Structure formats: C-alpha cells, structure tokens
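Hi, here's the filled form for the chain we discussed.

Project: internal
Contact: R.S.
Residues: 433
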Amino acid sequence: MYLQELREKAGKAVADARAIKDAADNEKRAMTSEEETRFDKFMADYDETWTKIQAAEKTEARSKRLEVAGRNIEERKGRQTQPEDPADVRGRRAGDTGDVVIEYGGAELRFARGTATERRCKSEYLEDFRQALRGAEARTLQSSIDVNGGYLVTPEVMIEGILKELDDEVHIRRLSRKVPVPGATSVGIRTRTSKASTFRRGSELSDSTDDTALKFGKKVLTPTYVTGSILVSRDLMRSANYDPMQIIREELARDAGELEEREFLTGNGAGEPMGLFTASADGISTARDVDTGNTQTEIRWDGLMEAHDSLKARYQAVAQWMFHRTTVTKLRKQKDGNGQYLWQPSTRDGVPSTILGKPYIASEWVPSTFTAGQYVGIIGDFSHYVISDALEFELLVLDQTKARQNLIEVVVRRKYDAMPDLAEAFARVKLAA
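And the returned structure, exactly as it came back:
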C-alpha cells in the first residue's frame, strides 16, 4: 500500500505540473513566472517522491531476499529432534521423607531436598547456565572488538566497502567496461581505423582484387595515481561514541567519486582520463557532435531526434541519455511535434523515467551552459567507455607519522585511466553555433 500511495502521489505531481504547461500552450503563450514557479514546485515534489519510491523498492527487495534466505535455511535443516528440557520438569514432596521426586523423560528421579543435585534440576539454575554460555560466546574472537581479534583484521577489509560506496556515487564507473592491468604499466586497445573493401562483381574466371583499405590502430590507457589523506585525532578515535572510520570512508568515497565523475566526463586526457565531453581524435571527435535542430540557447525535440538517430541501431537498442539536472528540468517542459511530452515519468517498478523513450542519467558534471556552440548532453552505449584500474584502492592507516601531534593519518591511493574506445557509440548534444 505504501508504494502504491507514493506512486499515486508522484503521478499527481506530474499531472498538476503538466496541467499548468498545457493551459499556457492552449492559450498559445509562454508560462508566467508564477506558473514557472508552480511547475518547478510540482516537479520537485515528484523528484522527492520518486527518491522515496526507489528507497522503498530497495527495502522491499532486501526483505524478500531475507525471507527467501530464511526459507532456504529452514528447508536445509531437516528433521529436528528436540530433547525434553529439564527446566520443564516438576518437583514434588515424596511423603514425609523430605526428598524431592523429579519426573523426567517418563521416569522418577529422587533427590534429597536442598542438595546440589536437586538445585541443578531447577529451572532457575538452568537459565543461569544458559546465560553463562551466551556470555562465553560473546567473549570469543570477533572482528568488532579489537582485543578479541579486531586487530587481526587488515585494512583491506575496508576497501570493499569504499568501492561499493564509490560505485553508488558515480554513474560512468557503474556503466563502463573495466579492464584491469596487473603487472603492466599501460593497456593497448586495438581499433579498426578503416574497413576492408575488396568484394567486386565478376565472371566465373575473374581474379579477385586484394584489399588495401583495411587499417588498424591502437588506443593506449596509461593509469596514473590519485591520492588523498585525512588526519584524525587519537582522542577522537578513542572516545567517539560512533565509528570515526565510517565517517572517513564515506568522505573519501564522496571525494573520490566526484573527482572520477568530473574526469570521466570532462577530463582532457593529459595525465587524466579522456572525458566524454572532450572533443578529441583519441576519444570522441567533433564528427559525433549533433547540433541540427537546436537553437543557440535551447535543446529542441528535433535536435534530440537527430542525436538519437545518428546512432546505429545496435547502439540505439541500449542507449541512455546523460544530462545535467537543470537540463532535465528544461526538457520536462518540452513537447514533440505531436504535442507529447519528451519526458515521461515511470509508472512501473524497476522501469526508469525516459526522454524520447530512452532512460536518462542526471549528473552534476555534465556541461549545462546554454550558450551558442556548447555541449549540453550525450546519448550512447556507455559500455564503450573503458576504465583501466591498475590499483583499485589502497588504504593505509599510519599511526606513527603524526604521533607527536597526537594524530593518526589515513592515506588512500588509486591508479586508473579511462577513455571512450569507440566514438560511433556516442552522439553529443550541442547547441547551434
């Protein structure tokens, strides 16, 4: 019910926003500033609700996985035989002898009242024994307590968590193709720069013509280092009522994620990755820029269609748009030649909202300056962006280097490079010059 209510709320926000835009269009006028403000408010409500829907869907999926795991455990336990619990036995007076008779397992056991044997059969004794066992279990080796084994856990245990957070923060790394370079300083990517062209019509005895057109080239990825460090007080590490390392991990993940996203989108290729929005023969050349149909200050429906259709069918099948969030806001107000909105909200679980029927990604590092000749978006198959990781993540906790200042130094180091490996898999959306 909760998810359904959220979806209905999101749908109503979109309907209310579009009612404002449609009213202005029907009157053949632009929206007033007040209408613009109301439109943006409804769409902000939609974005907030959609974020809640995605969070609820993830929670629901996790709950289902736990439920399935629980069923699997139960199914694999097999038939369990539970012995009678001595805590359930009953003691009674045995005549005037002062003895206690215990009924257990169908037999009668007789003990003198007040003896140690009789006390061990009481439920209070058994519960104390169980508590003692639980306490012993808590004192066994475990990574969450330093003195009980936590010091045996190497820093690399934290690396996986950082990488997971990193993948969640950026888009290109999640969509790209990864190529490791163990034992090498660079990675060569073979490219075909010119197709073979040899087949000709001929007669039964005609000789074939040797091909001279087929040519190959190579693109090279050369990973370089990025580094960072954070200082933390020893007192803070000792006395904080939360885990300072968790805060450090989150901050390092954010910082590294922002650097990566910027470089993957706008890096110049000189000692850093070649970005998708950097015009270069080594990445995506200007031949893949599409400005037809756009004005100097605005993306138009015709322009988006030109960019989409410039991709071959193979790439169109898996293509996604990428825009800055402010550009998405502009596109939500636009319609195609048939009066249909370019942006369509999602109405089903697991199905993203679309622009011209294709899913889109909003990234803060996509260019969004709406002046003549500027890039404002891209569409393509992002698996043709290649990331080469020579060192995924190295984390060092140095507790001696700053000891005189009562500080611990946390140092991180990565080594990677990245670039588009096939320009024809992308089309950049550009404003008219």
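Let me know if anything looks off before we file it.
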